[in-house]
């Protein structure tokens, strides 16, 4: 089993090479290069009849594996270096396209960066409220963060200051972003976020991936996002490429809000009680009875297994928080 690479006999073609993959009767593509070493290579599907009878073979690459997996073909060459690559079937500018990429070119398109461990703004410890409906929440494991679970009126991650919800961040995967936009849920979510002093939406993908969508028109999604940003300019929609970068951005955004709130309170003290953004913030969400019961037991307070909690238990929780 081998990958055949030949010169393209068509003088008018901008793709100088032909590829023949050992799948079915042989899949044939014209390609921009012989291997995706520095950038992903554009390929154009051809019919088996387009493979010349007297092909000028440039290279024969022995293969250990050539398997189609969904919208991609995985190639594993039988050599120690430059042995893995993938042909991905996608769309570009509304047309079908195939790109030949390697792990190296994939990392360049979606970089694996090392996020800093320095505290954001010097905040020693930040308490972030995680919405109780969030199934797979950020853990902020590399940062000085303490998380608590509670139902939030808006967003997935919130910051409580002086008993008020000062900021919230709504997390979206690309598919969730598109679904909530096309169904109208995103419009209501931004309206709720806009009622807070500070709020944002973070997307775990690149903006360019909007234009690779195949089940909805990319222009429809791009126009919808632009319209939402014009309507609610105080709630930015930020694309952060990967989940880890979105988590890092969320942490630093909420830490910056913590510092902003402290500066605003100091300014109000000096200037006078004219009121600030925090004065219009909604009250912090109350915990559930189960959360208070668990907290009480952890602090040696006797509580029943079921039913309502005594008022003194709630008073003790509020005093501690």
UniProtKB/TrEMBL annotation:
Gene3D superfamilies, A to Z: 3.40.50.10130, E3-binding domain
Keyword set, alphabetical order: DNA-binding
Stretches assigned to the Cyclic nucleotide-binding domain: 125-215
GO BP: any one term: DNA metabolic process
Family matches, as Pfam families: ERCC4 (PF02732), Lsr2_DNA-bd (PF23359)
GO molecular function: acyltransferase activity; DNA binding; nuclease activity
Protein name: Cyclic nucleotide-binding domain-containing protein
Record organism: Parafrankia soli
């Amino acid at each position: 089993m081998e990958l055949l690479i030949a010169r393209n006999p068509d003088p008018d073609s901008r793709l100088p090479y032909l590829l023949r993959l050992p799948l079915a009767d042989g899949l044939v593509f014209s390609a921009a290069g012989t291997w995706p070493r520095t950038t992903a290579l554009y390929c154009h599907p051809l019919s088996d009849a387009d493979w010349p009878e007297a092909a000028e073979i440039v290279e024969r690459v022995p293969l250990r594996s050539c398997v189609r997996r969904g919208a991609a073909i995985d190639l594993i060459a039988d050599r120690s270096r430059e042995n893995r690559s993938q042909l991905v079937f996608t769309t570009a500018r509304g047309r079908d396209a195939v790109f030949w990429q390697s792990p190296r070119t994939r990392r360049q398109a979606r970089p694996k960066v090392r996020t800093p461990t320095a505290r954001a703004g010097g905040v020693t410890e930040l308490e972030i409220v995680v919405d109780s409906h969030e199934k797979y929440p950020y853990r902020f494991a590399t940062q000085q963060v303490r998380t608590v679970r509670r139902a939030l009126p808006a967003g997935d991650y919130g910051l409580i200051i002086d008993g008020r919800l000062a900021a919230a961040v709504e997390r979206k995967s690309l598919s969730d972003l598109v679904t909530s936009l096309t169904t109208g849920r995103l419009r209501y979510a931004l309206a709720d976020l806009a009622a807070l002093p500070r709020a944002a939406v973070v997307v775990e993908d690149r903006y360019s991936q909007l234009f690779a969508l195949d089940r909805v028109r990319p222009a429809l999604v791009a126009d919808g996002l632009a319209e939402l940003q014009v309507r609610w300019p105080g709630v930015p929609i930020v694309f952060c490429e990967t989940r880890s970068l979105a988590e890092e951005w969320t942490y630093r955004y909420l830490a910056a809000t913590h510092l902003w709130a402290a500066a605003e309170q100091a300014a109000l003290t000096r200037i006078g009680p004219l009121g600030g953004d925090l004065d219009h913030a909604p009250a912090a969400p109350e915990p559930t009875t189960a959360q208070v019961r668990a907290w009480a037991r952890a602090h040696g307070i006797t509580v029943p297994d079921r039913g309502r909690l005594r008022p003194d238990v709630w008073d003790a929780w509020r005093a501690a928080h």
